[in-house]
Design brief:
alpha/beta, binds guanosine-5'-monophosphate, about 40% helix, single chain, inorganic pyrophosphatase (n-terminal core), binds manganese (II) ion, seven-stranded parallel β-sheet, Diaminopimelate Epimerase, Chain A, domain 1
Length: about 350
């Protein structure tokens, strides 16, 4: 009976505050995030990296894959290990780690080729995340809160609640600001609470230069990216007014022709979403090894459920993604069938 109880207990992650008393003993720490990290994944992991280093821990940030070059300016980014290019080094660090912080993802499969390694690691896994339905049974400690704007905000809360807010400096502030700005669409999504603005006010007080962060993230693209965006908006976008839906589907040849790099397609889905009357926007990209989709909605259409049901994915209520192994044409047909199936919800939307 006691053994059963112990097993049951292990299935529930302990509150993150239980590790606060342990923070003062130096540990070997690995911090990781979801594949193809965005500003929130990279910003939150690097903020935690600087914070834990200041507390005397030995930390390494490992990304499951490469990332967009517009993240490279972030303090500490040059030390981040790309699992796909340095697997042996990363494996060794994971083997040695006492703690493995898992930031900005809910299920281990979001770390792609790292999944097995993380699953079998002897170090304690700690979750800080805001996606729905976390795999709580694989984390010893953690916090999951879908109401939070960003993982960066949660890392800030973690620092404050741990009693070490005095360690938050302008470097940490830049990383946190990059994360929260990315995930709130520059403070415009409904998730932007008073707490978010209070956090930013605190970061400003300790010297954050927010316009520098904005410029690094948004004013650093190559001309080719905008030629590509022009091309796909003109030639690859379909609007289904009867379903208040718009889709951009992109064949792999377009990516090659315009020399599209990791991160260049981020935010693309917001263009069709900005069309008046559109409730659901999708981008489906043929990345060669898989078809990657992004979904965004305005109002009451739940793209998390939509992505889970049809596209092996998930995410948040108004922003989700997924992937398929089928050819692009089949995935596009699947999407068209899916919007028909959801016609009652999509068509009834009041503007
Ligand atoms: P994006 O469209 O920017 O790739 O992703 C939007 C949101 O959905 C992000 O919060 C991202 O973490 C989540 N997401 C994207 N792809 C997947 C996926 O394949 N599985 C799950 N569970 N979430 C995803
Ligand atoms: Mn996030």
């Amino acid at each position: 009976m006691y053994a059963d109880f112990a097993l049951l207990l292990r299935r529930f992650m302990q509150p993150i505050k239980n590790i606060f008393p342990l923070l003062t003993q130096p540990k070997d720490v690995v911090i990781t995030m979801h594949q193809k990290p965005d500003g929130d994944a990279m910003g939150s992991t690097l903020a935690l990296y600087h914070f834990l280093n200041k507390l005397g821990h030995t930390c390494t940030v490992i990304s499951p894959t490469n990332w967009a070059s517009f993240l490279n300016w972030m303090p500490g980014c040059k030390q981040v290990i790309d699992y796909e290019s340095q697997p042996a080094k990363a494996d060794l660090l994971i083997d040695m780690a006492d703690w493995i912080f898992c930031l900005d993802f809910n299920v281990l499969s979001r770390t792609k080729r790292m999944e097995e390694k993380l699953k079998n690691a002897k170090g304690l896994r700690v979750l800080i995340d805001h996606h729905r339905e976390p795999q709580t049974e694989v984390f010893t400690y953690g916090i999951s809160d879908v109401n939070k704007s960003s993982t960066a905000e949660m890392v800030y809360d973690f620092m404050v609640a741990s009693g070490h807010a005095n360690l938050i400096d302008a470097t940490i502030g830049e990383c946190l600001y990059a994360g929260v700005m990315t995930d709130t669409g520059s403070f415009r999504f409904p998730s932007t609470t008073a707490s978010v603005h209070k956090m930013v006010a605190h970061l400003k007080e300790i010297g954050l230069e927010h316009s520098h962060v904005h410029e690094e993230l948004f004013d650093n693209f190559l001309e080719e990216r905008f030629r590509f965006i022009g091309h796909v908006l003109l030639n690859r976008m379909e609007v289904f007014y009867e379903y208040n839906t718009a889709l951009i589907s992109i064949p792999q040849n377009d990516l090659i022709k315009y020399n599209v790099k990791t991160g260049d397609t981020e935010g693309l889905v917001n263009y069709p979403l900005s069309i008046s009357g559109i409730k659901l926007a999708a981008v489906i990209i043929d990345r060669g090894e898989e078809r990657k989709s992004s979904f965004r909605s305005k109002g009451g259409f739940d793209v998390n459920t939509f992505a889970r049901k049809y596209f092996n994915g998930g995410g948040h209520f108004n922003a989700a993604g997924g992937f398929n192994k089928e050819p692009l044409e089949e995935v596009v047909n699947k999407f068209k069938a899916a919007i028909k199936e959801n016609a009652s919800q999509l068509s009834s939307y009041q503007f």
